[in-house]
Specification:
mainly alpha, Helix Hairpins, two-stranded antiparallel ribbon, 3 helices, DUF896 domain-containing protein
């Protein structure tokens, strides 16, 4: 997600608190928030999939391989 979309989320949040949003702005805010949350989840999943765990016997397991690189819904 690019910085301009994050800035727009913040502008809409400030406007919502100050004076309220129109119906169109509310829908835009909801869509932007959903996109932002999906992006956060995708990044977190990628980080978790790249974690290697060292077992007590010295072997390493990649969590992404172990749990099948499942995509977040």
């Amino acid at each position: 997600m690019d910085q301009s979309k994050i800035d727009r989320i913040n502008v809409l949040a400030r406007k919502s608190k100050a004076e309220g949003l129109t119906e169109g702005e509310r829908k835009e805010q909801e869509l932007l928030r959903k996109e932002y949350i999906a992006n956060i989840r995708r990044n977190l999943r990628a980080q978790l999939d790249s974690i290697d765990v060292v077992n007590p016997d010295g072997t390493t397991e990649n969590l992404g391989e172990k749990y099948g690189n499942k995509e977040a819904n």
